[in-house]
Amino acid sequence: MEMQRSPSSLEIRVVSSSQPQEKPNHFQRVRNKSSQFEDPFSSEHDPRLIYINDPNRTNDRYEFTGNEIRTSKYTLITFLPKNLFIQFHRLAYVYFLVIAALNQLPPLAVFGRTASLFPLLFVLFVTAIKDGYEDWRRHRSDKNENNREALVLQSGDFQLKTWKNICAGEVVKIHSNETMPCDMVLLGTSDPNGIAYIQTMNLDGESNLKTRYARQETISMISDGSYSGLVKCEQPNRNIYEFTATMELNSQRIPLGQSNIVLRGCQLKNTEWIIGVVVYAGQETKAMLNSTISPSKSSNLESYMNRETLWLSAFLLIICSVVATGMGVWLFRNSKNLDALPYYRKKYFTFGRENRKDFKFYGIALEIFFSFLSSVIIFQIMIPISLYITMELVRVGQSYFMIGDTRMYDSSSGSRFQCRSLNINEDLGQIRYIFSDKTGTLTQNKMEFQQASIYGKNYGSSLQVTSDISYEISTTESSWQQGRKPKLGDNVDLVLMSLLNQPLIGEERLAAHDFFLTLAACNTVIPVSTENSPHLINEINEVGIIDYQGESPDEQALVTAASAYGYTLVERTTGHIVVDVHGERIRLDVLGLHEFESVRKRMSVVVRFPDSIVKVLVKGADTSMLNILRRADDDGLHSSLHAKIREATKNHLSSYSSEGLRTLVIGSKNLTDAEFGEWQERYEEASTSMTERSAKLRQAAALFECRRLLVDAKTKFGIKSNGHISDSGTQNIELTGVIASDKSESSERVTNFSDTELALIIDGSSLVYILEKDLESELFDVATSCKVVVCCRVAPLQKAGIVDLIKSRTSDMTLAIGDGANDVSMIQMADVGVGICGQEGRQAVMASDFAMGQFRFLKRLLLVHGHWNYQRIAYMILYNFYRNAVFVLMLFWYILHTAYSATLALTDWSSVFYSLIYTSIPTVVVGILDKDLSHITLLHYPRLYEAGLQNEGYNLTLFWITMLDTLWQSLVLFYVPFFTYNISTMDIWSMGSLWTIAVVILVNIHLAMDIQRWVLITHLAVWGSIAATFLCMVLIDSIPIFPNYGTIYNMAASRTYWLSVCLIIVLGLLPRFLCKVLHQTFWPSDIQIAREAELLKSYLGSWVQGLTMTSADNNDFRQLLCDPSLWAMLIQLLS
Questions:
Q1: What is the spatial distance between Cα 41 and Cα 48, in angstroms, rounded to a whole number?
Q2: Is 437 an annotated catalytic residue?
Q3: Contact 168, 281 (CB under 8 A)
Q4: At which positions is ATP bound (predicted)?
Q5: Which of 714, 927, 959, 1043 could form a disulfide with 394 if both were Cys (CB 3.0 to 4.6 A apart)?
Q6: Residue 175, pLDDT score
Q7: Any residues with CB less than 8 A from the CB of 528 and at least 6 apart, and which?
Q8: CA-based radius of gyration for the chain
Q9: How many whole angstroms separate alpha carbon 1068 and alpha carbon 969?
Q10: Torsion region of 718: left, alpha or beta (phi above 0 gives left; psi -120 to 50 gives alpha)
């Protein structure tokens, strides 16, 4: 798949209304500081003017930003208010703040004022420390970056200057391996031809070298030392793949493009030095404009959790209303004798200054209102605010183990699995539709020459493979004179080699010559010597090893194939190309170049041969090239021959496609003087245009591309992708630009054509018609009735459109996976985006939620880690709802028996520590480490993945069943101690001590009943939490100033105390235990059956290991028990 970029999706436009003859005022200057970046030009008369080596004049009209950058958020003065403002954007923190504020009011002081503030202050403090540390690192990074130095032309000499003081219009010199301080237009390089090599890894993640050129007209500036001229360029924008500008120099108007600019953050490689003029600095550089954070995604389970949170909020309001109503009724009935009742008196009867002090009675109405607010404070943990923090911790732990999974480590590229988004780990267990790119994703993007159709004849059947492919090409003249054999490591067709060794006589031989000459010349690949020789053109009698550098691996493969057949590209500049043809150097003057683009789907170069013949060489996709072929009817005597060649070539094309080969059409045409003159006029006008340059260049290319272009012998070139495709599906798909979506309910049947009933194949042009005619609903109906949908030759935005077609019409989860820049839109559109660390750069990885080295890892990611993450998070959400609700309902029953007085039997700190210390750690540990099934079982039985698709781990039914269980357990928690000590003299603090230890033990044993995998850390977390609770209670009860002083010492010595705790646990968990036994016995799920089979196999395996090996029968029995097919049959019988 060829990389197709979509400039329109990256461009940002600017609007300026200032008059050219007036200098803007301060307000207008602020607006001109690139606060809006929308269009490169609002009009052709309002470009950015950069005067070379004259920064004062450059910045006279527009106050361009300096080169100082700032990525930090805070300063010492703004840190506290700004950080608090950002933190309180989270509703959870606002909720905490309201509760703490209400508790500070005297009528509502349920908890101690310090205790009520502790959770909020703790969370704010920890978050502020984290944010402050991160911002300090940003400040330090900004300081180091801004204080770096570069050579700037000052007073006729290059002198060191800090980066932050560099401004637009200044001339800067960069040496090898140095980083660009700003965006600069190249004026000259150490290479005589003006070539420079840069690495853009810091910008777009690509590690391969890019080539940039200085215009030949500006190279003289370097030798003369007279830097002058005017650059008119577009306004700052984010598009790193396009640059539109012109330079006015010595009354000439020179076009400048993307190949003439080097961007901030790029590194200079294999070039001694470059000199350029600054056009964008600081925050206006393309690197800084692209430093925005991708929009975050929220998980599917989290949306369900928010729905249940609303239910709990409604329930909270109901029970608070019950308490307030009960309080009002009780006050109304006992309004005349409040002083005589134990729970509510108008006067205090106590010791000290408070004795006989009047109680502030606000009236029944206000007392009801205050009772409602006090109830909200008491029952505040019904809203599981701590659940959000717990989920973040669990996701971090899950990501740690996913990253450390050695089975998802790609040793060939040295790349580990990456979790780039921590919000959607559990979504990996609920994917129903998979959208996949093919080339580089389902297959390794390694290109080899396979077959070619030249002059109607097929070549490639006698292909000889001598060794592995190598991009190092031998360029010795003698090697071709001595039998003309290529170096080891190239794949060649001997018949085709024999044809190329013949003299240039006859149409077939000339067609083959133009074919390989186009492969070698019509590209943007740069040959680089690997033997420290800067001039390849002089290496005639010596062996020179050439390394081809290019932005596309496809072009590198084409040039390598041409070199294998004796057409070696040895030099390329902006003005000429040198090709070694079997030892003879041919210099081609480049008159114009039309690079590949997604609209034309072609690339063409206009060259002048040494005999002054002007020819256009074209290559492109078959769909775009076959439409512009010259008709054979106009060729007179040759019409019959050309018709046969055309038909043979089309047949070869069909044959190549059926074999899964990637095809390319090569063409050429001689230009007459009139045609060349017309094209040159249009080309120069378009290349210097400041508006719609791409469209005008496309129109100029159409002059010769669409005027009966003669494709020499209608040649065809085949490239094969050496695919390594996973066993999880798609192994039979070999179509260019494939997007495969899975409609099946099991990822076991993802995309294998042999297993499907219906499949849909659709191309890009059909998609355009469908989307324009509002036929998306019909396409959706057809596509979802198929098991596989294959989309061929689709644009990047069309890929995203297909994902949106499914995503917008169904609630099912979607996953998109790709490896190239043209997959970014699709990856960002899907619920889960996965990037492959392939050979098409790292744009897909940088835009993805998860990244990995091979497509085959997707099977393990979904079936194993996706299943584990979903089951863990789903259970953790339900458990947190249960854990908080059982505590709240226990307090609710107590308040109903204390005249609705909103009093507590628990200490303030016990209430605070319940969610913070007593029960939080086991939840996190189980959410990270628990495993219901082994990875072997999950991979062997992909049907188990359906548990996530069917929402078996978390749904509304399970939520309400959990709430019913919670209701029962809360009743047991309250009424067992209530009836046990009903006629005793136990005070409320002793009762609260019993309830505290009982509820903590109950919820932890509840959790222990559901744990599937016990390890040392799990034991320490569960049983250690119970021990920590008892220890904290001892410490709290040992503080003399607390009203519960010494309570635990008296209660712990009582047998009734411990018997009550045991009775609570047994009665509270008995219904749950019985229901689990019945359900797993009579209605077992697939997961339960597989788990039992695992346990049975483990027990029998241990028993078999203990058998003696003295007889052959024992050996046969052991082999039988170890046979996987036996266990598969067993599981089927159990199910």
A1: 9
A2: yes
A3: yes
A4: 437-439, 555, 596, 619, 662, 718, 793, 799, 822-823
A5: 927
A6: 93
A7: 197, 209, 270, 546, 547, 548, 549
A8: 38
A9: 5
A10: beta
**Close Cβ partners of 902 (under 8 Å, ≥ 6 residues apart):** 110, 323, 327, 371, 374, 375, 378, 895
State the Cα angle at 1060 between 1056 and 1065, rounded to 5°: 155
Q: Which of 54, 204, 427, 437 is catalytic?
A: 437
Q: CA–CA separation, 858 vs 842, rounded Å? A: 18
Residue partners of 364: CB distance under 8 A and separation at least 6:
328, 331, 332, 335
What are 348's two structure tokens? 């205090």
Rounded to two decimals, the pTM is 0.71
**Torsion, Cα of 95, 101, 103, 106 (10° steps):** -160
- Binding-site residues from annotation: 437-439, 555, 596, 619, 662, 718, 793, 799, 819, 822-823
Residues contributing to the annotated binding site for Mg(2+):
437, 439, 819, 823
CA 325 vs. chain centroid, Å, equals 52
> Which two tokens mark 741?
């979506």
- Report the distance separating Cα 886 and Cα 594, nearest Å: 71
The whole-angstrom separation of Cα 199 and Cα 142 is 22
**How far is it, in rounded angstroms, from Cα 312 to Cα 959?**
11
DSSP classification of residue 415: B
Annotated binding site for ATP: 437-439, 555, 596, 619, 662, 718, 793, 799, 822-823
Condensed to tens digits (0 to 9), the pLDDT of residues 216-232 reads 888 878 877 788 889 99
Pairing of strands 813-818, 431-436: parallel
* Burial (0-12, 13-18, 19+ Cβ within 10 Å), 86: middle
Q: Report the 3 state secondary structure along 456-483.
A: CEEECCCEEECCCCCCEEECCHHHHHCC
pLDDT digits (tens, 9 = 90+) for 854-871: 888 999 999 999 999 999
